[in-house]
Amino acid sequence: MSKRAVLEVIALGAEDAVAAQVGGADRLELVTDMAADGLTPSRETFGRIRAAVGIPLRVMIRLADGFAAGDVDALVEAARGLRAEGADEFVLGFLDPAGGPDMAAVDRITAELDGCRWTFHRAIDRAADRDALRKRLADEPGLDTYLTAGSPAGVDTGLDVLAAEAARAGEPGYRQQILVGGGLRLDHLPRLKAAGLDAFHIGGAARPQGWNAPVSADAVREWRAAVDA
């Protein structure tokens, strides 16, 4: 029997989380402030969502817009607080001024995660050298996923890169799962699935009425059916 593809949905609160779970999401990415492309939610928000649903939750560690780490002490404190609240999966990713992975920031934060699984988010799409970034991060404890569109401009222009990286699965730096997200549409799925990609991330696509409205269970259900088709 083939393994079911992953469908991850962005949730801002418990209402989103419940709707996403009802619609068939496998996992949630928890954030706040989508005007800044997703920042760390409060411990209280995490606690409410954890109490509301039973599916895995990946919590964003990011305190400002952009891909620079900024105040690393504050990021470490946020990670420590979420761990104390019971969070055990995370999302993070920072670049240094040269466009490489900010290893000092990543290492300090992941030290707080104590081996928890985590996703390196779309900072990879802004990296100076994607391949070099992957190889530099290859042995980071807990890193099991890259959230990427294949391009800073989104999946439309990143399809070839995504397919090429999927073809390298198993190589050093390419053992992590590719989670496709960033302007992802239903019509992208056939090509992505044909390339062997099996994990998909949606945010606005789960909210037909826009970001000021909650996640629609029906929209998530439509994606679930398309991902599984």
Automatic annotation (TrEMBL):
<dbReference type="Pfam" id="PF03932">
    <property type="entry name" value="CutC"/>
</dbReference>
<dbReference type="InterPro" id="IPR005627">
    <property type="entry name" value="CutC-like"/>
</dbReference>
<dbReference type="GO" id="GO:0005507">
    <property type="term" value="F:copper ion binding"/>
</dbReference>
<protein>
    <recommendedName>
        <fullName>Copper homeostasis protein cutC homolog</fullName>
    </recommendedName>
</protein>
<comment type="similarity">
    <text>Belongs to the CutC family.</text>
</comment>
<dbReference type="InterPro" id="IPR036822">
    <property type="entry name" value="CutC-like_dom_sf"/>
</dbReference>
